[in-house]
Amino acid sequence: MLYPRPDATLRSGWQSVVEILEENTTADHSLLRAAYPTSTEIIAASPSDKQLLSVGHRDHRNGKQYCEEVLLQRHTICVQDAALDARWDGCNERRSGYRAYCGTPLLWPDDEAFGTLDLLKTQAFSDSELLSAKRLLENLGTGISAQLALLYRKQEQQFQNSHDALTGIPNHTLMAELAKQQMKHQQRHGGELWLLLWTVDELSTLVPGAGPRDTDALLRSITERVRGCIRQSDVLARLDEHRFAILISDANEFIAGAVADRIRRNVRKVSVASKKGPHMSFGMSAYNGEEAFDGWLFRSEAALHAAMKAGGNQTVVRG
Question: Do the beta carbons of residue 102 and residue 77 sit within 8 Å?
Fold first, then answer.
């Protein structure tokens, strides 16, 4: 699951947080930074009129920022006077004249770092100033981390409601939503849209004497093979226990059939306990530009049923 993006309401609240920090400490600047794999970005700042410390400013993560130690250690870091510690001589903020720093991590529930909440000062902190600033910083940082946790849990719940628990791919509900979007696009812009349904023939016989966990592991392996055979723009979904679907845009019958053949060949390579590899049945149909999704799905289901009734390991097309 991808981490959610904070909305404008949260960002506005965080701007208020950094303003509270700047007003109630002796720091010259307070910042909230988001951390990315190769950079950090200021997303809230007070005061907001400093070019190098303004919202939107990015720095490369090259080990030359105070906040990178916070991201590394996952706990509050205080630098009372960087002029007395050679470790900070090459630090970007130190070279810009900021001798003192205090920063606390902002974490997602899985302990990955979202970013940092920072205080910067051109003069050294006194002992009392640093203690007071650290307490306020950590209290406000804990509140922001709690907001991140709620955001994360909300998206996690949405993901669970729209994806298959076993394979992690979209479920029937999400597939229907995505298909309807593609159907509207096709109605406006033209092009062909194909819906392929597939199932693994005689799945239970492929793992003789195995339990549900073994069957689940086989399905996950097959799903990964299928995922590797389709384009990034195609949608792979699990409709129910045995039926899967692939939504293919900008294709024709030949291309859709070639996708089914490529999947069948690759899935045959999946290692199973029985002597024969997995066989697959496909049913597919093109969107006619007028029908509802359920009607289109019904035609692909009828094609899949025909393929299975004819002995499986084949593709049937329904107009």
Answer: yes
Total Cβ atoms within 10 A of residue 128: 9
How far does Cα 316 stand from its chain's mean position? 35
* Rounded (10°) CA dihedral 295, 197, 180, 319: -50
d(CA 277, CA 200): 10
Q: How many CB atoms neighbour CB 232 within 10 A?
A: 5
Closest residue by Cα to residue 114 from 47, 40, 20? 40
What pTM was estimated for this model as a whole? 0.71
Mention every residue, 6+ apart, whose C-beta is less than 8 A from residue 299: 285, 318, 319
Phi (first) and psi of residue 96, to 5 degrees = -90, 5
Quote the CA–CA distance of 27 and 33 in Å, as a whole number: 16
The string of pLDDT tens digits covering residues 230-259 is: 999 999 999 999 999 999 999 999 999 999
CB atoms within 10 A of CB 36: 11
Write out the two tokens for 93. 């903020």
